[in-house]
Amino acid sequence: QVSTSEDSKEQVWKLLLQNFQGDFDNYSQVIEDRKRGMLPREGGGHENFHCTLIPVTENGRLAAFYFDGNPQRIFRFRYYELLPLTDAMDQDGVIMKLYTLQPELERLLREQSEKPLDWPKIFSSFNDSAPLESKINYLPKCEITWSLDLHPEEHAYVDGVHDDETGLHAVMVHGEATVDSTIIPGVRIRIIDQLSLYNDLFYINDRGLDPETGDFIYGNHRGVPYRLE
């Protein structure tokens, strides 16, 4: 049953502000994979990565993703903007817009990669008198919509696992997006993503594919999401 009431949207909003922050890591999942003989990529296993989500405004989050628990190995920085309910009343959930960071701002944050509690000050003081748009770059058609609704296919990975918990689930508004790689210049990546967030658990089913061949660039080859705790 689809939840479309304003009460449901308000609940989604409050849960996002409460739970969409902190540190998440899939180390336990990696240990399970290795015990089963599964290595990353073609081996069907998962890489170990960590996600740090830091509030910089009430509805803005800085997100850093890095390998092997090492903040010196950040492979992705993002700014996430949760749109206030008044800006998305025609939607069934809460919309989240995605942005990359201005290169100089990202450099400053990387210099303090081991001090994430300093990031809000660095973010706010960068181009201090300029608008938010001077700090970030919008990623077109990468919007995510969060709701209480569990899609039977896109969120099949949690079906029956968390029946006694209230979770938030997200899908891409446009289904998928093709963007420029921020790591490999000149490379385009087709992105498909689903998310699920519980009180202390974050599922990320993020895959990057070659738009021409469909070959994996990143993500789990078995389609099993990263389970960060």
Brief descriptors of the model:
229 residues
What do you see in this structure?
With 229 residues, this protein is of the alpha+beta class. It is 17% helix and 33% strand. It is built from 4 helices and 13 strands. Strands 1, 2, 3, 4, 5, 6, 7, 8, 9, 10, 11, 12 and 13 form a 13-stranded antiparallel β-sheet that branches. The longest helix is centred in the first third of the chain and has 14 residues, at 6-19. It is globular. The protein starts with 5 loop residues before the first helix and ends with a strand.
In helices, the fraction of residues equals: 10-25%
Which regions contain 5 or more consecutive residues with pLDDT less than 50?
A: none
Structural class: alpha+beta
Largest sheet: 13 strands, antiparallel
| CA gyration radius, whole angstroms | 17 Å
The beta-strand count equals 13
Strand content: 25-35%
* Overall body shape: globular
SSE ordering: HEHEEEEHHEEEEEEEE
> What do the pLDDT scores average to?
93
Number of helices: 4
Span between termini:
28 Å
Give the SSE layout.
Layout: H1 6-19, E1 22-25, H2 27-35, E2 49-55, E3 60-67, E4 74-82, E5 94-101, H3 103-111, H4 119-125, E6 136-138, E7 144-147, E8 168-172, E9 177-180, E10 188-197, E11 202-209, E12 216-218, E13 226-228
Write a short abstract of this structure.
The chain has 229 residues and is of the alpha+beta class. It has four helices and 13 strands. 17% of the residues lie in helices and 33% in strands.
